[in-house]
Amino acid sequence: MDRELYVPRSWTCVPDRCQAAGLGEDTAFATEPEPAARMIGRFLDAGHHVGWVAGDEVYGGNSKPRTALEDRGVGYVLAVACSHEATTGAGKFRADALTAKAPGPRPVDDRLCLQGILYVLYNDISW
């Protein structure tokens, strides 16, 4: 596995604070999904294999982890906001509108969508 220290913007904008904490001068702010995408890359580059990855809305709402997984052919389950827009062959739709159009059993419980969360299983659900 892998790890990276998440350094919030409130720290990276105060160089003295970073220096006192032993962080290098090149320490820069990055949203949580950015190091996640780098860690996924390093994990797969090391020859490890994984069938799928799961993450919350912080990761599902950011294109970097999704792109890193899609580029490598790794399936994923990432939460997205109901207002998240996805492009399909039929056009661009909000995530909650897509679930309403999905044939068969609902892919998620309506209550989850009302809370702003939609789980999409890439590679298994075809819109």
TrEMBL record:
Name of a matching Pfam family: DDE_5
Domain of life: Bacteria
Domain Transposase IS701-like DDE residue range list: 2-111
Protein name, per record: Transposase IS701-like DDE domain-containing protein
Organism: Streptomyces macrosporus
